[in-house]
Design goal:
- By secondary structure, the chain is mainly β.
- The protein has two helices and ten strands; from the N terminus they run βαββββαβββββ.
- β4 and β5 form a beta hairpin.
């Protein structure tokens, strides 16, 4: 058991999907990197990519048999987040249940986030 608080937790569905992505990757992958980038109509978007090697400063989460690498610049914006995966009639994808979310755009592709103890990042961005 980890001795410190995990930045992000995974549901069983998210872990299964991450495992499937890693198993089907064109090149060997250690896990999935999760970050935050500026973009979208609400100001911020979650960014994910396959990891072939850890970067200095990554927060590595080993949960349910998969590894998630958190970019250091995103850690404060992801504290307490649960990563899920949903499949519905019209959409399939990862869902982030983030307590640091201030607002989200109508299309569901971008969010406005605040650091765990800070000002909203992306404040002033147009809402869409």
């Amino acid at each position: 058991m980890a001795s410190r608080f995990q930045v992000l937790t995974l549901t069983d569905a998210a872990a299964d999907r991450v495992r499937e992505i890693i198993d089907n990757a064109a090149t060997p992958a250690l896990g999935l990197r999760v970050g935050i980038k500026k973009g979208g109509c609400a100001g911020m978007e979650y960014d994910m990519s396959l990891v072939d090697e850890a970067r200095p400063g990554d927060d590595v989460i080993d949960d349910k048999g998969v590894k998630i690498f958190i970019e250091p610049s995103a850690a404060l914006f992801l504290l307490g987040t649960e990563m899920d995966h949903e499949v519905s009639k019209f959409r399939s994808g990862f869902i982030f249940k983030n307590p640091n979310e201030v607002s989200a755009c109508g299309c569901g592709e971008s969010v406005n986030l605040k650091a765990a103890e800070g000002e909203p990042l992306g404040a002033g961005a147009s809402q869409g």
